Amino acid sequence: MAGLNLPRSGHTATALNDGRVLIVGGQGLTNESYQQAEIFDATASSASTWTCARVTSLTNQQRLNHTASLLSDGRVLVAAGSQSGNTAEIFDPATGAFTATAGTLKGGYLAVNTLGRNQHAATRLADGRVLLTGGQGGSGQGVGQSAEIFDPNTGLFTSVAPMNTGRIFHNSVALADGKVMVLGGSSASSSVPSTASTEIYDPAANAWTTIGAPGRSAATVTRLLDGRVMLVGGANERQGNDPATTPTTNVSVSRTTHFFDPATGTWTDGPLLGTARQAHSAVLLANGKLLVAGGTGPQTISGSNNLASAEIYDPATNAWTPAGNMKIPRVNFAMVALPGGKVLAVGGSSNNLFQSSTELWDPATNTWAYTNNGTSDTSMSEQKGFPAPFLLSNGMVAVAGGSSPNTSTPTAAVELFDPATQNWTVLATPLSQARSGHFPVALPNGKFALLAGRVLNSFGFLAAVGAPGGAAGAVEIYDTLANGGQGTTVTTANAFFKTEGRVNAAAVMLPGGKVLLAGGSVNSTTGASTSEIYDPANDTLTIGPALTTGQGTSVLGVGLGNGDVMLIGGDKADTITQICRP
Asked: Are 580 and 547 in contact (CB under 8 A)?
């Protein structure tokens, strides 16, 4: 039995209608890419007479990490590859010749549509056309969520709806109903995180449906009044050929939204945001609508794109409408819904500068204004990134700790905002420890508790607080009304967690007032796979359910109506979703 005439990797092998196999491209022992093709003939009854012969005609381009798809008429579409730009060609077994297609590919990365794709997938549709998905663009630029269809009748490629998750080295398969399933792959061009996500393309509707939770980071997740969970925006989603999102982008930022229905345990796609955004903030309004504001939009070649825009989702109409622009763009900030309907936006960063300013959104006028009755853009005493404002039992808004402009030094300041006067007041007594990356819990009578986070350890380095044997301070309780309204710390027995310290964990209020603290980061490389439950009524910590994997920093947590808690994404597992029952 004959072997290949050339050593190859990164090539394709396609079974022809007559039983022979077409082998195209790849690279050899010295990493040179080939234009040579071969045909392996195993049609003879005896393996000893099987042959592998070179095709006389060379491919028009060197081909590596391309695709080769058998067409309905027996010809083969050979498309793109890392050495071939946006070109494609067709092999005709009857003549043994390769002929360039009439059109070129639309591309797998930037919307300028000139970079082609490689490490992509291709599947023939029921009508004979070929769907090409994902891959990298020219010179290994990023992961494409774009998709396109080749029509053998015209020889042209047409862009279609992009996938919900960018991927390379994935698989695609035609289903019996005419749809196409795309599975797995790697969700980053660095070849690191593999994705478990799966989605289905419907050619009739030109739409993708995610099966399972969508991969996402830097998104927001909110439980709506009807019990559904809404996931909005974020990174590692739509990029490339979505002209409504952004021309010429080089990072992935999403306009997509998704709903999880606890009753059915399924995800469905929601309406597209007006503006793609990540690292934004979202708050549920008393009327059941969802206000989303700020964040970063798709980064252009020339730089970042901080957003001041806001929009509102109305479940009754299943649509987004504009909600005016904030006074300044804000990223990694926070919002609090106030009694009476207004919304307070606090701190964050704007064009890489931490902010002390705060502003109010008024639903009556659909406009934003600085606090201090709109007369000043300086509100808090300190510039704060990643603030964690929360509503106290007396109607005041508190901000305790957080990241200072010197991100290696958290702040210990406690500040209160009075909605009636629109003034901020710094309490004389600071926290016992400067901390950031924590979760605040409002307690009765003007008190609050801070859970977890990072503090300076005995060596002067930031570390997860409360780790057994590490820096003490798993929980800090503070009374804003004590000491004549200047505040004081309250003794707590919870110096250390039962399991491990954690930073930027998911914290979810449970029925009955307890708090589940789950996931987060133990250190720069390890995500916490444990959870603990804090009971404010008794000031106690108990071990909660173990997680199937540590999801890391910025994991999103949301309580479901049945008492379960859903954990989504995180920097160590951005495609993982798990549900636990405390």
From this structure: yes
